[in-house]
Amino acid sequence: MLLVTVCRTLDQESGEVHEVHCSRERSRAAWNIIEEYLMPFLERERYQISSKCRLHPDNDLFRDQEQHKIYVDISEWRCAYCKKRFRAEKFLDQHFDSRHYNLLNVSHSKCLADLCGALHCDFVMNSKSSKSKCNPAAVARNRHLCESVANSCFPINEGPSASRLHELFLRQFCDAHTCPGKRKLFPKGGKKEPGIFYLAMSILSLMLLPLFYLIVYLYQREMRRGTQELRRIPQAGRKTKPS
Questions:
Q1: Same domain flag for 94 and 209
Q2: Whether this model's pTM surpasses 0.90
Q3: 97 in helix, strand or coil?
Q4: Ordered DSSP codes for 190-240
Q5: Is residue 188 included in any domain, yes or no?
Q6: What is the DSSP-derived secondary structure letter of residue 70?
Q7: Which residues form a coiled coil (predicted)?
Q8: What DSSP element (H or E) covers 77?
Q9: Is the model's pLDDT at 164 over the cut of 70?
Q10: How many C-beta neighbours within 10 Å does residue 173 have?
């Protein structure tokens, strides 16, 4: 009986699902893009974006719930509000929608998914460039949205850091909103991952570490043996006293 109860908790729970006119999945994709391709540059400039900026964490309807997810392993997620367990993240999302809907501030328009057009969410979620025919009207609309975000979040009249970040945002996100030519997304890069050389050196160091300790052990053993031999030599050279 206990096993059945646990399995039901791990899977899914029934309950009224409240409709929220904001995609949790696309909001999550938008936030991941912000974290990956924008936050490192804000940290480098030590720049604090205003709460009026649509990229601010407070303007993400689902941010608090996303921060209350506990990833245990590939088959277990936990709700940090009530500690219930689920087999997959999608079941935890459903749990938030049915059991913790009251924690969402739906009184204000804070749907981060609304910025997906500017941030190229579709490209990231599909993990490859779309082969669909370019729509000039949609591209122009997304570029305008992208530039308006740059203007509101990084006003160029607020100092050198804001001006540099304004330019970076245009190059990083807005320039790719164009039909002719091949799009190059996020040309400024994002969070730095360990390079292949660094990874290879780390593995090599782990492999050589036991060998180093073995050499140190053998060296110390030989030193002790040599010291003992030196002590025996004076003792052997001593002459016995006549009785």
A1: no
A2: no
A3: helix
A4: -SPPPPHHHHHHHHHHHHHHHHHHHHHHHHHHHHHHHHHHHHHHHHHHPPP
A5: no
A6: E
A7: none
A8: strand 76-79
A9: yes
A10: 28
